[in-house]
Q: What sequence folds into this?
């Protein structure tokens, strides 16, 4: 029978047991940190994509409301306001629909925005989160003329105005290379047949697709969300916006090149979209 190992021999075995060096431990910790960062990034990206999906679903529901409005109004798109916008002569009771086709009442400070019950889509879609973009960061436009009311819609357009989405009507001072068929209210008040390519004509969009006085990041924002014109060239982020088109389909587009490559003419047509109808040629009699 073998003798049991001595205390010294057991001690030697313990000393020879495998162990991690400090460097090995640091390497393992660094790998775990990298994997955790990748996981958090993936989760963050998934959350952002879910927000885009929510907006696309909202647009499809709003599209049904717009279609019902058109059918009930002799084939005509909603108005931009309840008073002709191009005149600039408004009564204090003016109600703007361009920024509020539907949704809940605006904050009282933004008095020209239509009451919820007076909005064009109210009979078809009751005020709800259908008009809310979950990535809505609001806008900062200062005082807006000729109505002289605040364009600082914070913390979000939805909370300030009751609606995150804009109806493609007023040009907001944007210039175009071609003469628009209607430079005053664009799609507002038009017959459905006025649109020549429904699958490309923008009906609803979010602020990142468009130049107002500033530029905006909502979806996938990783830095400043309001970009001044002087900051546009150095801004590394992409201008992403879900879009509703006149044929009723909704998808997401990147407007970075349209806004940055030719900032004096950001509304020019591309293969995927167009903002305005060029002036129709006069028909000779």
A:
């Amino acid at each position: 029978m073998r003798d049991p190992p001595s205390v010294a021999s057991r001690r030697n075995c313990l000393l020879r047991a495998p162990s991690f060096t400090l460097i090995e431990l640091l390497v393992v910790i660094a790998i775990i940190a990298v994997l955790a960062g990748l996981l958090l990034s993936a989760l963050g990206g998934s959350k952002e994509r879910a927000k885009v999906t929510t907006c696309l679903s909202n647009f499809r529901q709003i599209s049904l409301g717009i279609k019902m409005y058109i059918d009930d109004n002799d084939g005509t798109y909603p108005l931009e306001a309840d008073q002709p916008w191009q005149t600039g002569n408004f009564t204090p009771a003016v109600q703007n629909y361009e920024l509020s086709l539907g949704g809940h009442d605006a904050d009282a400070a933004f008095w020209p925005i239509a009451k919820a019950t007076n909005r064009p889509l109210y009979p078809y879609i009751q005020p709800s989160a259908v008009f809310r973009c979950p990535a809505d960061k609001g806008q900062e436009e200062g005082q807006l003329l000729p109505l002289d009311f605040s364009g600082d819609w914070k913390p979000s357009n939805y909370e300030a105005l009751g609606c995150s989405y804009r109806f493609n009507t007023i040009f907001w001072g944007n210039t175009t290379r071609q003469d628009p068929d209607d430079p005053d209210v664009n799609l507002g008040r038009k017959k459905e047949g006025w649109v020549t390519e429904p699958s490309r004509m923008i009906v609803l969009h979010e602020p990142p697709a468009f130049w107002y006085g500033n530029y905006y990041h909502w979806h996938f924002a990783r830095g400043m969300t309001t970009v001044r014109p002087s900051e546009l060239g150095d801004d590394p982020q992409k201008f992403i916006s879900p879009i509703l088109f006149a044929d009723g389909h909704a998808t997401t587009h990147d407007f970075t090149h349209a806004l940055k490559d030719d900032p004096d003419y950001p509304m020019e047509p591309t293969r995927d979209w167009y903002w305005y109808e060029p002036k129709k040629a006069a028909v000779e009699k």
Summary: The first strand starts at residue 139 and ends at 144. Residues 22-72 form the longest helix (51 residues). The beta strands are 139-144, 149-153, 166-167, 202-205, 215-216, 226-227, 240-245, 250-254. The CA atoms of residues 176 and 268 lie 7 Å apart.
